[in-house]
Amino acid sequence: MTNEKQNDLLCMKNIHKAFNNVPVLKGIDFEVHAGEIVTIIGSNGAGKSTLMNIVAGVHKMDEGEIFFEGKQVNIKDPNVAERLAIGMVHQEPSLCENMKVYENIFLNREPKKSNGLLDRKKMIRESQEIMQQLGFDVDVTKTVQDLSIVSKVVVSIAKVMIMKKKLLILDEVTAALNQREVEHLFEIIAELKKSKIGIIFISHKIREIVQISDRVYVLRDGKVAGIFDKQQSELKEKDIINLMLGETQWKGEYSERTLAEHSENVLLDMNHISKHNMFSDISIKLYENEIIGLAGLKGSGITELMYSIFGIMQYDSGTLCMEGQPLKAKCPEEAIKRGICMITNDRQNEGLAMNRSIQENILIASLNKVKNSSGFLNKRRMKDVAKEYIGKLSVKTSGPMQQVKFLSGGNQQKVVVAKWLFRDSKIVLIDEPTRGIDIKAKNEIYDLLLEEKNQGKGLMIYSPETRELLNICSRIIVISNGKQIAEVKRGDELFTEKGLLHIMHSY
Amino acid sequence: MEKTQGLLISAIILAVLLLVSAVFIPKVFQPKNLENLLRIYAPGGIVAVGLSLVILTGEMDVSVGAIMTLAMAVAAKVYDISEPGALLTACITGIFAGFLNGIIVTKSKVASLMITIGMTSVYKGFASILVRAQKKYITDLYPVTQRLGTGNIFKIIPIPLFFCLVFALVFEIVLRKTKFGSWIYYTGANKRAAWMSGVNIDRIKIVCFTISGLLAAVSGVLLAGQLGSSTVQIGDGYDVTAISMAVLGGISLAGGKGTEVGTLLGFLTISLLQNMMAIAGLGTYVSTTLKGVMIILAVLLYGITTVKKE
Questions:
Q1: Which residues from chain A sit within 8 angstroms of residue B198, using beta carbons?
Q2: Which of A137, A187, A388, B235 shows the smallest number of beta carbons within 10 Å?
Q3: What residues of A are in the B interface, CB distance below 8 Å?
Q4: What is the mean pLDDT of residues A205-231?
Q5: How many domains does chain B contain in total?
Q6: If you average pLDDT over residues B276-286, what whole number do you get?
Q7: CB-CB: which of A360, A368, A376 is closest to B186?
Q8: What range defines the domain where residue B119 resides?
Q9: So what's the pLDDT on residue A251?
Q10: Distance from CA of A157 to the nearest CA of B (A)
Q11: Taking the model in full, what pTM does it have?
Q12: Architecture of domain A3-250 in CATH?
C-alpha cells in the first residue's frame, strides 16, 4: 500500500451492489481524507444512499474492498461501523421523540453514579457543553418532539460527536432547513473539519455543495461520473449539473415526443388552495386528456397537495372544483366515489396489503364491478380480471392468488397501478410512480399512464426524477417550499432537465 | 393456499386430541357424551364465531362475556311480562353493547383491547345494578328459553350446536362470497391501505363488533336455557374461551387471516379438551390451566409456520 493511501480515512474500491438482480452500484471507487468534506451528488437512483448505507453497515456489498485508516475492514453490520467510529446523521433524524435531548445524546452510553443510578447532572452538563461547542442554543432538558427540525438535526450531530467519530455522514440534513439555518449548520461543519473529522455530505442543493465541499463526487447510474476537486479548479454549478445528467445520453428523447393536445374541459380546478405549513396559494387547472408534472425537491409540499385533493388531509383555504362541482373530500372514499384515485409513494403501508393476494389487492377498490346480480362476488370474474391485469401489466407472478409480499418492488407497484386502472377513475394522482423500480418496469408503467391519458383522463404526477416528467408530461409546474414558482410547457426553452434543475435549485 | 394451511394445523391438533381420547378415554365417544359435550360448549362456540369477525378486522373484544351477562340481566326485567319480548330484549341489548364498543373503538382510536377491558367492567357493573346483585334470576319457568337450551333439532342435533353451525356457515359465506367479507380481510391485513382504497373501515369494524355483541347475547340466552337460570356470573370466562377457540382455529390476532370453519374446529378442540378433563376427573381448574397452555401453544405454532415460510 502506498503512503498516500494510508492518509485516507476511508477508501472504497470497486464496490458492487444489486437489489433483486437490479444493479445499483457498478464498481465505485471512493475515498475520504481526514479533515475533508466530500460531497456526493446524483439524481435519485444513482446509488448515493446505497453507497452510504454500505459504509454505515446497513447494506452488505456484493463485491469490493473497504479500507478504513489504512486497514481492510468488513463492515457487516452497523455495530462494526460504530466501533470504527463512523457516524451517520439521517435526513429524518432518528431520535427517540418522547425522551429528553440529553437522554438522546447519551442514549446507550449513559454515565452512572457510583451507586449505579444514572448521573443526570453529568449528562445535562456535558450536553450543554456540546451544544455550546456547536454554538447552538438548544435547551437540553426539553423533550425532542418539542424541538424544531433544525434543532433535531443539531441534536443528532451532537449525539454523533459525543461518540468521538472519525467519519461523519450527513445524509440530506439540509433538506428541511431554511437558508439561515443552513449557514449555521455549515459553520458547525467547518468546525468539525478543523478537528480532523472526515465528512461525507449528501445533498441535492448544488449551491450549498459548491459552497462547502472540498471535493465533489458525481454519481450516475451506479458509477462515478466524475470528481471535482476544489484545489485543482473552482467548483461550478453548471459543470456539476451537466455531469449529473450525462447530457449526451438523454438529449432528444423527450423533446422529440409529441403529445396530443389536451381538451378544453377542465377536470380539476384548484383556486388558491393552501394548507398551513404545507403549501400555499396553489392554482392549477387540470384538463381532460392531459398529464401535468409536478417538480420539486423533497419536502416541497407536493405530497400534501395531493393528499388534500384525495381526502387524506383537508386544505385550509381556497376552492377546489372537480368538473365544476366543489370538492373537499373528508376521506379517500369520498374522493374515489367522485372519480379520483391516488398512487402514493408508500406502497408497503398505503398501497397494498402485503399478506393478501394479487387478486384481492387489485379488486379491493372496485368490488362492485365483480358482483353477481344476486349480490355475491363472482369468483370466476374476479380471477379473470386479475389475470387480465397481470397480463396487461406483465406482472411477474405465479398466479393471481400469490401474496404480493413475494413480488419484487416493481411488480408490487404494477399491482397498485392495476388496482386503479381497473377502478377507472377520471383523475389520477401519482406520487412517485416509479419509486424503487428498474428502468424496464418504469417504461412499462409510463406507457400505461400515457394510454390512460389518451382515454380522456387527467393525470397529475410528481416524480423526483425530472427526466421522467419531461418524458410524458405536456407541462411541468415547479413547486418549492409549498409555493408554485414556475410553469414550463413542452417546447419552452426551459423544458429540459437543466432548465428545471436551475429553477428548482435557485429558490 | 394459506387458508388451507391454517385449517390444516387446526385439523391436526383436533385429530391428535381425538386420537389421545380414543386411546385413553374412549368414553368420550359414547353418543350421549358427544351430544352433551357439544350442547354444553356450543354457546362458547357461538361467541367465538362472532368474535372471530372482530379479530379478523384487527381488533379485539374481551367484553363478550360481560355482554352475555348484561343481555340476560336486561332480559330478566322483561321475562315476567313476556318471554318472547325478553328474548328480543336480550338480542337488542347485545346489538347495542356491541355497537357501543365499535363506536368507541373507532372514534377514540384507542386500542380496542383496552376499551373492551373497560367496557367489561361497565357492562358487568350495570348488570349487577339492574338485578340488584340477586344471586339467581330467571328461573326454569320459561319454556321457550329452556327448549332452546336443552332441545334438539331432528332429534339428534342440540339446538345450541345447530345455532353455532348455522352462524359459522353464514359468516363463512359472508367472508368468502361478499364484498363485506373481502373488506373485513383487507381491513385486517392493512387498514391504512384499505382506507386509502375507499373502504369505510370504521363502518366495517362497527358492524363486526355489533354482530359479535348479538352472538354473545344469543349464546347468553342458550346458556341460561341450559342452566335453567342466570346469574351475574353467567358470562364469566367466555371471553377467554372464545378467544382460545378462535386462535386455535387459526384466526390471526394481527387480523386479516383465518376462517369461520377454522373457528369451528377450534370450538371442537376446546370442547373436547374440557370434556376429556372432566371425564378423566381432573376438574375445571386443570382444564382452565390447560386451556391457557393451548392458546399459547397455538399462537406459537402458527407463528413458527408463518415465519418459516418467509
A1: 332-333, 336-337, 365
A2: A137
A3: 310, 312, 331-333, 336-337, 342, 344, 349-356, 360, 363-365, 367-368, 371, 375-377, 379, 401, 403, 405, 419
A4: 84
A5: 1
A6: 79
A7: A360
A8: 2-309
A9: 40
A10: 34
A11: 0.77
A12: 3-Layer(aba) Sandwich (3.40)
pLDDT tens-place string over residues A111-164: 888 888 888 888 888 888 888 877 777 888 888 888 877 788 888 888 877 777
Residues 6+ away with beta carbon under 8 Å from A15: A25, A27, A28, A29, A30, A51, A54, A61, A63, A64, A66
The helix (run of H) or strand (run of E) holding residue A327 is none
Helix (H) or strand (E) holding A457: none
Q: Do A365 and B198 touch (CB under 8 A)?
A: yes
In CATH, what number is assigned to the domain containing residue B95? 1.10.3470
Answer whether A365 sits within 8 Å of B197, measured CB to CB: yes
Interacting residues of B84 by C-beta distance below 8 A, sequence separation 6+: B144
Please give the residue of chain A at the shortest CA–CA distance from B185.
A356
Strand partners, A72: A67
ipTM: 0.84
DSSP secondary structure letter of residue A377: B
Q: Is B183 on the interface with A (CB under 8 A)?
A: yes
A376 to B177: CB separation less than 8 angstroms, yes or no: yes
pLDDT for residue A506: 66
Q: 3-state SS of A179-244?
A: HHHHHHHHHHHHHHHHCCCEEEEECCCHHHHHHHCCEEEEEECCEEEEEEECCCCCCCHHHHHHHH
Q: What is the average pLDDT value for chain A, to the nearest integer? A: 83
